[in-house]
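Is D-glutamic acid placement plausible here? Inputs below.
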Amino acid sequence: MAVGIFDSGLGGLTVLDAVAKRLPDLPLVYMGDSAHAPYGVRTPDDIYNLTTAATQRLFDAGCDLVILACNTASAAALRRMQEGWIPTDKRVLGVFVPLIEALTERQWGDNSPPREVNIKHVALFATPATVSSRAFQRELAFRAIGVDVEAQACGGVVDAIEDGDMILAEALVRSHVDALKRKMPDPDAAVLGCTHYPLMADAFQAALGEDVKVFSQADLVAESLADYLQRRPEMVGPGTDSGFLTTGDPDQVSSRATQFLRRQITFDAA
Ligand code: DGL
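Reply from A.M.:
I modeled the complex. Tokens:
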């Protein structure tokens, strides 16, 4: 029995790590499409085609449930996948909804009408494709009223992380936070709307200041998956082996992943 976790590259490892801690007995197959990362500068059609190919690879590995641990794919491809591509015996879940439920103080699946919430000014940091999809604002509008969202497209950060250049990634984070603050000087909360960004969480928090509550997805997605599997245990697929698959160079990707998660991670070619 295995659950699939997909990202364009290494960012979804932040979600995998949280899921592995929350559900230690659950076999997980990770798929990172490093050969095609970053997705955040691609067109919606391109993102859809790459995401469906990677998801199919996870179905083939015995996963009936796949988490798109990638905001860009969740924003640009998931709805289209759900409209006709996903076979009826499989499920694909994105990473936006658990985050927005946390931000809007809702329990899982609370579909009551939108209402006022405590948070009024939200800074969203995400890839250019996620920002231009406006998926975050759309999901938020279903659940909350009166929340002002200022989005900052953080060009370059995913490339720097994938290349292991954390000094560049940190400098870019500081400059994106400065740009955001010129548009919204005092956000109450910041959303790290890209699964790569928790790897830079300290840099975001330092640049934003201690008063800004920073929401990142890993633990929220892990909690929501645990809840989902309690209600739908049959969605854990027939695969029994955990593993890490990449479309990139397995040696290079393994060494970066090992550095990020501070434990040995060995990728195989997808
Ligand atoms: N981790 C992906 C996300 O959450 C990064 C996308 C990219 O490859 O640009 O959006």
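Short version: The domain at 2-95+218-269 is CATH 3.40.50.1860 (Rossmann fold).
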